Amino acid sequence: MALHDQSRKTASGDSGKAASGDSGEIASRLLAWYDAHHRDLPWRIAPRELARGIRPDPYRVWLSEVMLQQTTVEAVKSYFRAFVEKWPDIEALAASPTEDVMKAWAGLGYYSRARNLKACADLVARQGGRFPDTQAGLRELPGIGAYTAAAIAAIAFDQPAAVVDGNVERVVSRLFSIVTPLSEAKCDIRTYVERMVPATRPGDFAQAMMDLGATICTPRRPRCMLCPLREDCSAITSGDAERFPIRLPKGEKPLRRGAAFVAVRGDGAILLRKRGDKGLLGGMTEVPTTGWTARIDGATTDAAAPFPGNWRPAGRIGHVFTHFALELDVFKTMTDGAAPAGHFWSLAHEISGEALPTVMKKVIEAAIPGATKKQRAH
Ligand code: SF4
């Protein structure tokens, strides 16, 4: 049945109706565009390779999808290449110490993903090294939610799964002029996508939707004249595609403050410690810091340094996490003392290889410019 015949009333009473076309036509137009204009990505098997019988490796699909959660394609590319060079398959990743995985992940953010990645690799390797080929089976694994399960099922196993990320939400909101705020329209969007997924090439369809959203139907200034779905699109006829998806105004993120302490030994080593395994940045490495708090009091000054010393201000850095913004006042001192309990010295040429999250790299760079970029000695 034609998709536009099935258009539903949304919560706001809008019909959410495409300008023309049906689900089969939309899918075939999109796939034809994808064949000619898909992005070449290090984890992707291109349509011409699929036609030659080359199949996607579920390990690489899974690894890329976990890395891409909340991270841009450009940021992921070099990490993906480094991971598959070091750990070419799930058994190799499972055999590696968690600490090495955390170090390789450092800078990619959202570090619970790295811990779940390792836990998932361990489990799949123990179970024979094969990923489940269904969404339900994939969702049983650590770190795999509804979106990632759908993406792996579609791309690696050719299952007709509805893969809905932010790019797809934007394309569908525009195709059907969905005026319900996005936060309330997600179920409707999923239903539209489910109807569009073709029985053949569902993996390419999923990737084509992502590519369309990333390269043509962009958040600002969509390039509608180049879009393969312009004949199907409701928003283009109204001339205000950028208006979609509709978003409710966001509240400002709360601000937390604290102090961070960069202690430097005479040979350039920096004092570090490991965070606890649970919670924000769990298992990552940091310089000593105070708590991060909404209050402004003595607990966030050099009075809270990990040991007495000639602590000098070295600037202030800002970092934005998902739920709050952070400002850290950075203090620096030179010392030749022993590392306090729970801390260790990292040699100058080892710093770049430590599992330092981006916020800690900012802190160290404020105190010692270039310190996190020095290459590890071979
Ligand atoms: S025609 Fe424009 S708004 Fe509509 S799907 Fe294509 S790029 Fe997006």
UniProtKB/TrEMBL annotation:
<dbReference type="InterPro" id="IPR011257">
    <property type="entry name" value="DNA_glycosylase"/>
</dbReference>
<feature type="domain" description="HhH-GPD">
    <location>
        <begin position="67"/>
        <end position="215"/>
    </location>
</feature>
<dbReference type="GO" id="GO:0016798">
    <property type="term" value="F:hydrolase activity, acting on glycosyl bonds"/>
</dbReference>
<keyword id="KW-0378">Hydrolase</keyword>
<keyword id="KW-0326">Glycosidase</keyword>
<dbReference type="InterPro" id="IPR015797">
    <property type="entry name" value="NUDIX_hydrolase-like_dom_sf"/>
</dbReference>
<comment type="similarity">
    <text>Belongs to the Nth/MutY family.</text>
</comment>
<dbReference type="InterPro" id="IPR003265">
    <property type="entry name" value="HhH-GPD_domain"/>
</dbReference>
<keyword id="KW-0408">Iron</keyword>
<protein>
    <recommendedName>
        <fullName>Adenine DNA glycosylase</fullName>
        <ecNumber>3.2.2.31</ecNumber>
    </recommendedName>
</protein>
<dbReference type="InterPro" id="IPR044298">
    <property type="entry name" value="MIG/MutY"/>
</dbReference>
<keyword id="KW-0479">Metal-binding</keyword>
<keyword id="KW-0234">DNA repair</keyword>
<feature type="compositionally biased region" description="Low complexity">
    <location>
        <begin position="12"/>
        <end position="22"/>
    </location>
</feature>
<dbReference type="Pfam" id="PF00730">
    <property type="entry name" value="HhH-GPD"/>
</dbReference>
<dbReference type="Pfam" id="PF10576">
    <property type="entry name" value="EndIII_4Fe-2S"/>
</dbReference>
<dbReference type="InterPro" id="IPR005760">
    <property type="entry name" value="A/G_AdeGlyc_MutY"/>
</dbReference>
<dbReference type="InterPro" id="IPR004035">
    <property type="entry name" value="Endouclease-III_FeS-bd_BS"/>
</dbReference>
<dbReference type="InterPro" id="IPR003651">
    <property type="entry name" value="Endonuclease3_FeS-loop_motif"/>
</dbReference>
<comment type="function">
    <text>Adenine glycosylase active on G-A mispairs. MutY also corrects error-prone DNA synthesis past GO lesions which are due to the oxidatively damaged form of guanine: 7,8-dihydro-8-oxoguanine (8-oxo-dGTP).</text>
</comment>
<feature type="region of interest" description="Disordered">
    <location>
        <begin position="1"/>
        <end position="22"/>
    </location>
</feature>
<dbReference type="InterPro" id="IPR029119">
    <property type="entry name" value="MutY_C"/>
</dbReference>
<keyword id="KW-0227">DNA damage</keyword>
<keyword id="KW-0004">4Fe-4S</keyword>
<keyword id="KW-0411">Iron-sulfur</keyword>
<dbReference type="InterPro" id="IPR023170">
    <property type="entry name" value="HhH_base_excis_C"/>
</dbReference>
<dbReference type="InterPro" id="IPR004036">
    <property type="entry name" value="Endonuclease-III-like_CS2"/>
</dbReference>
<dbReference type="Pfam" id="PF14815">
    <property type="entry name" value="NUDIX_4"/>
</dbReference>
